[in-house]
Amino acid sequence: MSKISAGTVILRRAVARNGRRLWSGTALAGVYQLCAALVPILIGVIVDRGVATGDLTALLVWIAVLAAVYLVLAVTYRFGARRLQRAIAEEGHQLRVELAARILHPRVLRAERHTGDLLAVTTTDAEYTSYLLDHIPRITSALVAVTVSAVALLLISPPLGLTVLVAIPVVLAVLNRTAPLIARRVKEQQDQAGRATALATDLVTGLRALRGIGAQDAAVERYHRVSRHALAATLRASRTQNAYLGASTMLSALLSGGIALMAGWFALTGRITVGQFITVIGSAQFLVEPFGVLAVVPGWTAAARAAAERVAAVVGADVVLPPGAAAPRSGGHELRLTDVTYGPLAGLRLHVRGGEFVGVVARRPADAEALARLLAVPDGHTGDVLLGGERLEAVDRGRARQVLHSEPHRTDLFTGTLASNIALRDDGGRHDDDGRHDDGRLDEALRAAAVAEVAHLHPEGLRMPVTERGANLSGGQRQRVALARALLAAPPLLVLHDPTTAVDAVTERAVADGIRALRHGSDAGYGTVVITTSPTLLAATDRVVFIGDGAVAAEGTHAELVGHDDSYRRTVLR
Amino acid sequence: MTHPILPVAGPRESRAWLGAQLRARPGGTGGTLVVGLFAAATAIVPAYALGLLVDRVRAGGGTDALVPVAVVIVAAAVVGGVATGVSAHLIRRLGAGILADLRERALDTALRLPAAVLDRAGRGDLVSRVGADVSAIDRAVTEVLPTLISALLLAAISLGTMIGIDWRLGLAGAVAVPLHVLGLRWYLPRAAPAYAAERVAIAQRSQQFVESVQGIRTVHAYRLEDRHLAGITAVSARARDISTSVFALYTRFVGRIHGAELAGLGAVLAVGFLLVRRDAVTLGEVSAAALLLHRLFGPVLHLMVTFDKAQDAGASLARLVGVLGTDPEGRGGGTAPTAHDLVLTGVGFSYDGTTPVLRDVSLRVGSGQVVALVGSTGAGKTTVASIAAGALRPGHGTATLGGVPVNELPARTVALVSQETHVFAGPLDEDLRLARPHATPEELTAALARVGALTWVLALPEGLGTVVGEGGHPLTPAQAQQLALARVVLLDPAVVVLDEATAEAGSAGARDLEQAAAAALAGRTALVVAHRLTQAVAADHIIVMDHGEIVESGPHADLVGAGASYARLWAAWTARAADGPGPPRTDAAAGPVVGSGDPPVPQRRQVRRDGPPLTAQRE
């Protein structure tokens, strides 16, 4: 052990912070195991002292002892298991919350992981890590059971006890040599089954597309093939697993049978009593289980460790942005990019004054993407992105995002209602004491983003339920909802990226007018940047910046540029 | 809203289905049962043989008594090991085979559900049935079924043997049986809803998490980190608390099982005591009975615990068997029409049976013609498109192609490209081959070239073999649309219905897509839902819809000249530089804008001159 890995730290912490429940639960589980080990011994005693002698008192006394053992066994099980389960559930919960906190970190987690991977870490891996708290009591109580039985056997007959203690581990060690093969087959089977499930899910998700081209037959045939592969893998895994099952059943039967026969020989030769003989048979049968636990648990613990490493990798992952603490200078709702190089952007200059409505047109869509991304997460660029004269990445993240709001082009909605998706931050009207005033602002935003008609189409209006990821809304409706929430948030500087690609021409025009009216009316001092190639939106702006190959190619009003710049005209031409 | 619309089979239906499956495999079922019983029988031989040995010991027999017992024990161990392995494999083979058939048939049915049913049911339910439910049954077949069956057989054989030793001993051991049953009857009704609640809580937990992660940009943009974290923490805590209460219930159940074990063991020993005193049985026989019973405790507890997993799998099975019970869409493998004119006559439609979405819609797309459907959101364009493609059946009126009702056409006569694009997960060429399963690589590249997608496809990391879709190389919405069009080219249908195929792409991408669509439509009868009016300009005929009715129709020039609703749409569409920096109007709401202001005449002329050359390409 040279250096402690991050996963080990997570595991140690799991033990430490659940110490009380873990150790008291483990103690109770140990007592439970002890009682369970006593049961076969007591059967032998009862047969020997009660049944064999015909002594009713002895029988009753020993059955009472058996009942007492059972009582202790039941009580310790109930309370021990509950404690341990609480510890495991609590640890899993805490890990999930820590993981979520890291993944949602305001300064943006640096991770090239898929959502699916992250989900797997928060569910499966967090759970497997917490299972360490299950492994510890299992190992402990298995050791207790082995010790008790071994002591009993040694007391009855030292050679017999020694044989048991040597033979059982040897047999289990032999059996466990096949574990890797079984694990491989099982994994193969799970992979194939997972593939079949993924295919089925994918086909049903794309059912409209399939149906549109009448490809159901082809799809069914494809699924058949994959399903049969999965079946073949299942049978392969089953053969391996059950060959193992057969072998282990055979070996453990030979083992406990052998011990019993040996004890039988000792009994026949008068070295042990009949009762002791029965106890040995019962104990030998019983011992196989705790020894089995001791044999497989190292594998489980390895799994917990691997899971903990994956948890640690996320919890310990870097964040992209520095911990900025600066504030934009007073009155600084001004955005200035000087010689910015970022992805395809090469030496971009852009200046948006407070209150201006600026259109940005990129001849290459990648330039537009890059600009929108940079304003959302200012990282990995050279040159300056200044907000109110301060470097954007140095500004306190909360403050920066409050001043400069960049609405993602790909609209993400959340389960809830239309209203909950539009008023994403309930504190949108924190500065207004009057609730009615908020309603007014909401109405304005709804009107400007042409969401009112979406709401009117549904009997519940704004309380219309929105299902997971907004799946029950059309692309155009989602875009309008996103626009409405951005307008309601009323940031001093708003960046919109292709906000109307999925809405019809009439609505787009209404939206363009709405943005203008709401954010650039008489008293508004808001700045708006719209990255788009839509002439309808561009016509509503004060000024347009045209980006050629990553740098500004032309500037002017939309009318001027349409009139004089061929390249611009071609880019915004419908 | 929460009512499942897809049917769920009742317990009797599920059992009947399962029974039919088992009877359909008489060899497998019978063999599994016989081997299983044999394995269970060999498992109890040692305890019995050792019981006999106990009597020999008591009788003071010589060591030679050991030999027959040893032979029996060794033989039983060897044969029993083999039988146990074979039995478990047979059980699993039977279960896995039935499951494979079930999942295939369920998917087959699912893919042929009528669109109307699917729209009402939502895809989520169906996806979870073919996905999560199949996995749940698979797990049960792997982990639960073999132990369940072998434990049941072992219990039956053990009790049988005890009765064989002496019926009174058997009866004493059987005292445990009603206690176990009582325990189960106490536990299962309480556990089922508790486990259901736990599953719901866990599902909510992952849903919250998935939404937060997939919407992370929005979360960051709106500074919602704390709120989402609080939401995740709350649902996670709830799942934790439910799990804890479910587990408390479980421990009480196990307590009852412990009581049943004690009762059985005590009864066997007490009855044994009385019988030995009367010399009805030997001490060895009592020992054998007690050991047999003790040996059952492990497997039976396991059996009890797996009962609720089996119940879970039963619920999943009911949901899958329910899918099998639905009526798939009947595509009459009917006659292929000779003519390709698409005609809708007096079509009315309502999704919910009360609110009409379409009223008396009649239209005709002549063979080889392109007709564009125009109108604002909610006008009913998509519904018309779905009916024309046969995905929905009209409530009133008819939809025919060459005189044959569209829903009786042979498959693959009409292609519908809908708003929703989907890139099928897997290699890109496999995606395309859904449209033409035996397409050669040359055909694939030709189709991609036709829709202008070949360049970017070849630039992908592994070209046509690149894995795309869920979990694969991400494609832009425009690229996904191009793939959809390439599939149409490969399918080569007589009629194409195109619904907003250019929506999500931004202007530059939209132009490319319009060209791709035009290329895919060349030489076919086509009904195009046009959001971008350039698609309408290019059409032979334009139909303008509003609130479920056709309000105007005719060629582009005539409609613009008519100065009615299409002319207003066109005006909004062509509004451009002339408006100058910022339109003067601030009463920006919805409707009125459309009517206010025809663009100046020179403007319109310029647009016509600049108009995209789609018409020429199509000819």
Question: Quick summary of this structure?
Answer:
The complex is a heterodimer of chains A (574) and B (619). Chain A is of the alpha/beta class.
Describe this structure in words.
The complex is a heterodimer of chains A (574) and B (619). Chain A is α/β, with parallel strands linked by helices and 574 residues long. Chain A contains 20 helices and 12 strands. Among the domains of chain A are: 1-157 and 293-320, ABC transporter type 1, transmembrane domain (ABC transporter transmembrane region fold, Up-down Bundle), CATH 1.20.1560.10; 335-413 and 486-572, Rossmann fold, CATH 3.40.50.300. A 6-stranded mixed beta sheet of chain A has the order 6-9-10-3-11-12, sandwiched between helices. Chain A has a 4-stranded antiparallel beta sheet with strand order 2-1-4-5, with helices on one face. In chain A, strands 7-8 form a two-stranded antiparallel ribbon. The longest helix of chain A is centred in the middle third of the chain and has 53 residues, at 216-268. Chain A is elongated and about 115 Å long. The model of chain A is unreliable at 427-437 (pLDDT under 50). Chain B has 3 domains: 9-165 and 305-326, ABC transporter type 1, transmembrane domain (ABC transporter transmembrane region fold, Up-down Bundle), CATH 1.20.1560.10; 167-280; 342-576 and 589-614, Rossmann fold, CATH 3.40.50. Chain B is 63% helix and 10% strand. Chain B has helices at 11-24, 26-58, 66-111, 115-121, 123-165, 167-174, 176-214, 216-221, 225-277, 283-324, 381-388, 428-433, 441-450, 454-459, 477-491, 506-521, 533-537, 556-562, 565-574, 592-595, 601-610, 614-618, and strands at 342-350, 356-365, 370-374, 396-401, 404-405, 414-417, 426-427, 467-468, 495-499, 525-529, 541-546, 549-554. The two termini of chain B are 49 Å apart.
Poorly predicted parts of chain A: 427-437
Radius of gyration of chain B: 35 Å
The CATH topology assignment of the domain at 1-157 and 293-320 in chain A is ABC transporter transmembrane region fold
Query: How many DSSP-defined strands of chain B?
Result: 12
Mean pLDDT of chain A: 86
Question: For this structure, what is the CATH class of the domain at 1-157 and 293-320 in chain A?
Answer: Mainly Alpha
Stretches of chain B where pLDDT falls below 50 for ≥5 residues? 576-619
Determine the CATH superfamily of the domain at 1-157 and 293-320 in chain A: ABC transporter type 1, transmembrane domain
> Helix share of residues of chain A?
55-70%
General shape of chain A: elongated
The CATH architecture name of the domain at 1-157 and 293-320 in chain A reads: Up-down Bundle
